[in-house]
């Protein structure tokens, strides 16, 4: 459920996106609010400026959170973002431990405004293959780090 406090922070993310346009950057902005609602960090899209396909604000903030926040704080942190995170960013958000995302425009709404936003090709993937060889460095890493080896089934895919 989105509250009026969420809407205020979401408006700030949209304002960050609008400011990005004035800088010549793509119109996407995000911020992180801690468990108490205080803004911890803000970012906007700098893909073109940085010549970096990963310079989405959501991914920048997920990386920041993973570096700077302990697990409990991250879990209580909300990302407010002008558009629904793409698959790349959603993966980073999940790995960072953030607790919640609130977005203004859905992916479908964005594609309706800019059809090129949904024009990404599907890249074929083949595998898994070479389980016996590929598992050696993975198992060695987890033995060294003292952590548990990742679970997997007989074809090498994580379970």
Automatic annotation (TrEMBL):
Annotated CMP/dCMP-type deaminase domain residues: 4-121
One Gene Ontology molecular-function label: catalytic activity
Signal sequence range: none
Superkingdom field: Bacteria
Pfam families noted in UniProt: dCMP_cyt_deam_1 (PF00383)
Matching InterPro entries: CMP_dCMP_dom (IPR002125), Cytidine_deaminase-like (IPR016193)
Name listed for the protein in its UniProt record: tRNA(Arg) A34 adenosine deaminase TadA
Native source species: Actinacidiphila paucisporea
């Amino acid at each position: 459920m989105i509250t009026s406090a969420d809407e205020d922070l979401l408006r700030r993310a949209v304002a960050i996106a609008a400011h990005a346009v004035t800088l010549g950057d793509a119109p996407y902005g995000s911020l992180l609010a801690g468990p108490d609602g205080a803004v911890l960090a803000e970012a906007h899209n700098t893909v073109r400026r940085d010549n970096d396909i990963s310079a989405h604000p959501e991914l920048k903030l997920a990386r920041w959170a993973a570096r700077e926040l302990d697990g409990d704080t991250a879990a209580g942190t909300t990302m407010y973002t002008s558009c629904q995170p793409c698959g790349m960013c959603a993966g980073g958000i999940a790995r960072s431990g953030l607790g919640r995302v609130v977005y203004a425009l859905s992916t479908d709404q964005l594609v309706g405004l800019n059809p090129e936003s949904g024009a990404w090709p599907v890249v074929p993937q083949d595998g898994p293959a070479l389980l016996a060889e590929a598992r050696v460095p993975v198992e060695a890493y987890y033995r060294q780090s003292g952590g548990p080896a990742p679970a997997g089934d007989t074809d090498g895919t994580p379970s």
